[in-house]
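Running log. JK asked me to keep both predictions on one page so they can be read side by side. First protein, sequence followed by its tokens:
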Amino acid sequence: IFIGAAMDLHRSSTIILLILSIISPATLSMRYELLSGHTKCISEEIHANAMSVGKYSIVNPHEDHPLPASHKITVKVTSPQGTAYHEADGVSTGQFSLTAVETGDYITCISAVDHKPETMLTIDFDWRTGVHSKDWPNVAKRSQVENMESDVKKLFDTVTSIHDEMFYLRDREEEMHELNISTNSKMAWLSFLSLGVCLSVAGLQFWHLKTFFEKKKLI
């Protein structure tokens, strides 16, 4: 009874943490500096069939003047298998969107165009995935009914994300269970093999000592 209660408590805690992780803001928003001729890559784990959008731009060091010609970047977004979802060369700003075909780490690499003398660029980067990738403020209309419809759609997308995440975690749990069974089986065979080797070595030592003592006529 106590074991069953503990398992139910663990499962309930897992579901609560899962809901909180999905409802909480799952966005990657950052500002960083990038030296000309250098590259910075950022990875994001995205589940299959999930939508993801990103925006990037170079911060203008002098707002009263146009962006210098040296302030250009090259951007490339790739899947876990190396498929390019977005490529932009010699730009100062841009955005991308994708729907993941497979689960894994998707990578965005931003390279500053090589320039002499070296120039330090400041990059603004924003990456949203899943429910948070949708621009809900622009979806909502002025009408109260349309606002309610927008809220319902948002809740539906949240529930769908929770459902997909739970199936993903269940599959991962099954994979870990199968891996544990396979590991235990291999360890059992290794133990038997080690025992066999030890017994063989002991037998050889016993035979060697017996032969040695017989030659010396000690036994």
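And the second, directly underneath as requested:
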Amino acid sequence: ELEKLGLRDDVDLHVYEVPVEYQTVQRLIPALWKKHSPQLVVHVGVSGMATTVTLEKCGHNVGYKGLDNCRFCPGSQCCVEGGPECIDSIIDMDTVCKRVSALGLDVAVTISKDAGRYLCDFTYYTSLYQSRGRSAFVHVPPLGKPYSAEQLGRALQAIVEEMLDLLEHSEDKINCQHEH
């Protein structure tokens, strides 16, 4: 849906479906970062427990015990051996949540600090590690429970645009500080 809606004109949007497989994630996420050198990667995952659009603040390295779609689980139960326990996104999710909520979309947006220690969290941590925090993860409820594809697409469009806006303004401040 977001691919249909697109983002503002100065943004190149690349959409990929990531399989629910630990080994594919470990190979694909670094390859996509290398291929595109993106300003930001926003991962979106469906959570059967979600009733809101949920912005995840951080990814976790350990505690992965569930089997993936290939019936595989990492023996180490972690994403990156020796990596930090938790990596926060450099995106201020509280600000994104407030800004998107203020737009008056018919979608509730909330914040979480635990993406669930399954493939969503595993993907998020892998991407955060690869990007030094330049990633985001958004959990969405299943279609129709309660939101339509169109509602979720509009919410994701607003979320990604707010994230890019925050990122661009923080980089302006960083660049400004370096010039003095």
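Observation for JK regarding the second prediction: The domain at 19-174 is CATH 3.40.630.20 (Aminopeptidase).
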